[in-house]
Every structure is written in structure tokens, then in C-alpha cells.
Amino acid sequence: MELSPESVSAGMAKFLGAAGLNLPHPPAPPAVERPAGLLRRVPAFCAGCPHATSTKLPDGSFASAGIGCHFMALDDGDQTRTFTHMGGEGVPFVGLSNFTDVKHMFANIGDGTYQHSGIMAVSYTHLKLPTNREV
Fold first, then answer.
1. Would you say 62 and 79 are in contact if contact means Cβ atoms under 8 Å apart?
2. What's the pLDDT tens digit per position in 29-88?
3. Residues ≥6 apart with Cβ < 8 Å to 108
4. How many distinct structural domains can be found in the chain?
5. Cβ proximity of 76 and 57 under 8 Å
6. Mean pLDDT taken over the chain
7. Is 75 part of a structural domain of the chain?
8. CA distances from 132 to 58, 97, 105, 126 (A)
9. Residue 3 belongs to some domain of the structure
10. Which residues form the domain of 61?
11. Cα–Cα distance between 87 and 47 in angstroms, integer?
12. Structural domain includes residue 43
């Protein structure tokens, strides 16, 4: 899914043309041919990355991801099912908890998120907020 200059300029020309700005047609993007049997490079965690193991979950568990390389856990089976913005990694379960019998959901966060805003979420995990079922 490379964004070549040709494909970006074609998209911009189409968008700006719809707004009434007439631009010359950009050159067509070159066709990409992949030889048969060519290996493709799939996203993977770097060697030694802690997310390579920290995103593995116990059977029957679910997780959400945030912004960062742990986002790649979405492609690794069906245990990581959703993602959110940086700092909101636990929020999907806050909204989901009143509508499910699932009692716990893991939230993958990286070092940057932890230092930026995740420390607050971890600090307040001892608080028990009432759910709609308890009110």
C-alpha cells in the first residue's frame, strides 16, 4: 500500500477538481508487477521488542490496543479486537463493560503512552466504579 507521488497527486487532483480548481492530469502511477513466488514482508515486532510477548494473552481473554507498535496485535488472531487513541487504551472496556458478561479486558500500552498518560490509568485501577447493573 505504498503512497507514491503519482497516486497522491492523482487523488489531490481529483479532490481539487471537484472543488472547481482545474489542474493538469498527473501521470498515471506505474504498474507494480510482483514476480511469482516473491516473498512479501509482513509487519512484525522488532527483535527483542517486549510487545512480541506482552501482546500474547491467556486463552479466552481479549485486549484493546492503542497507538504504537502493539497495534500490530490486531493482525495476530482475534484476541485483540479494537484500538483507540493514545492514552485511551482502557476506555473501550469502560463503554463495553455494561453490555457484556466479560469481567476483564487487557489493554496494551507502550512505554510512551505509559509515561504520557497511561500512568494515570494504572494508578487508578484500585478504584471500583459502579456499573449500570449495580446502581
1. yes
2. 667 676 666 666 777 888 888 778 888 888 888 888 877 777 888 777 778 878 888 777
3. 51, 54, 55, 63, 64, 65, 66, 68, 70, 73, 80, 89
4. 1
5. no
6. 75
7. yes
8. 28, 9, 18, 19
9. no
10. 51-123
11. 25
12. no
